[in-house]
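Researcher: Re-running this chain for the archive, since the previous output was lost when a drive failed. Same request as before.
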Amino acid sequence: MQNENLFNRPQYLKELIAFKDTEFIKVISCVRRSGKSYLLKLYRNYLLQHDVTEKQIIYLSFEDYPIWVVTNDDKVYLRAGKGKESK
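Model: Regenerated structure tokens:
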């Protein structure tokens, strides 16, 4: 992931951080090109600064794969380049 200058979004980041380590699924939805990916990059940077390692973070760009067929967690790790597909 490139090192980019990110526009600070403190309120949205604070809301993500408030639900860190909870069982809630975090959903970020909005119109196209509104900063969703940048918000997640800010959250990634926050995690890296607070004892989360790079190996614990999975980043998947759905722009990179023309067809996504992920049927289990092993395939997600395989797509992210962080593991081997189990048989």
